Amino acid sequence: MRWKMARSRTRGRFGGGTARKRGDRWEFRFRLDGAQRSVYGRTVAETRVKADAARAEWRQRLAPSPTLRRWLDEWLAMRQGTLRAQTWLAYNMYVHRHIIPVLGDVRLAALTPDYIERLHGSMRHKVSGTTAQHAHCVLASALRSAVRHGHLVSPAVHDVPPPRRSSPLVETLSRDEISRLITSARGDPLEAAYVLAATLGMRQGELRALRWNAIQLEERRLVVRGNATRTIGNQQVISLPKTRAGHRSLRLPDVAVDALRRTPRQGDLLWPGPGGDPIPASSFCKRWISMRRRAGIRPINFHALRHTAATLALEDGIPPHVVSAMLGHASIGTTLGLYAHVTHPSIDNLIEAINARYSAHRPLRLVDGKGK
User: Fold this and answer.
1) 3 state DSSP class of 372
2) Where are the beta strands (DSSP E) in the chain?
3) In this structure, what DSSP letter does residue 112 have?
4) How far apart are alpha carbons 238 and 102 in whole angstroms?
5) In angstroms, what CA-CA distances link 5 with 2, 8, 9, 206?
6) Do 103 and 222 lie in a common domain?
7) What is the pLDDT of residues 257-274, one digit of tens each?
8) Are residues 32 and 79 in the same domain?
């Protein structure tokens, strides 16, 4: 005779969970705050009551938790006076362009890994991996601050690894393009800026902040002391370099000295903008695009001149630590990481040098009378 076994598993209400018999009691499994929870009771009804109570308690704890939109705006306001203007503007961009449009209405305590993955997915194929990673890190920093301020915050952002950084794309000009640029730039008001970027790798912000009192033409010396940035109110200002390595003294090559001698003096700055402030980055870039076209150079941004200076120096055999100091890198590792492709050919030279050094120590090879 076949007997029907009593059902020991029941499905709860839609989305409500699942009940299962565990010995002489029932277990009720359900999802709460993105994680699976279990409660136990003598009957299914008792377990469902306990599950409903847990959900109610969670909703009560969640109620005071602000939304991401509200907290991120508050957090940015608090950080405005503690961050460099450029850093704050970058944070503000990540928050309002990427995070809030996707997660703005989600409460801090209700964040789940699915929400974080949704944020990552919204940026995929739209921005670089580096930008996506920065947005993730800004969100994580804001959430850590929320915890310090006593808010109930889900740890979901720490459960999902940040997007991987993109491999930096290093674009450079050829030696022929650099030659055409220096020839075409002769007599242009920004001639010296192009030459200093292409020969010594100076950054655009450093050039826009350059003052005449930082240059000694007779001693052929230039001191990098500042970086032109814009404030939150869009005013052009000069700030200190980010690192100690950024504050550096550079020897001027002849081509740079000649270009600086032809640069007209218009005030304290070499290239002042309206009101004597540094020339805005947008105006500087427009001038570069015009010069690029005049010199017949392919579309490439101004920062490529800095990469070109480093690449040509390494190709000419200048030691990486010297190039790193010229660029103002805080670590030689940054230089080697960016320009590893340039140092690869030197490996062949290294092997040739080792072979030549120890060639006298190689054992003689015996040959027979036939030369074999």
Assistant:
1) coil
2) 9-11, 18-22, 25-32, 35-41, 215-216, 221-224, 227-230, 236-239, 248-251
3) -
4) 35
5) 9, 9, 11, 81
6) no
7) 999 999 999 889 999 988
8) no
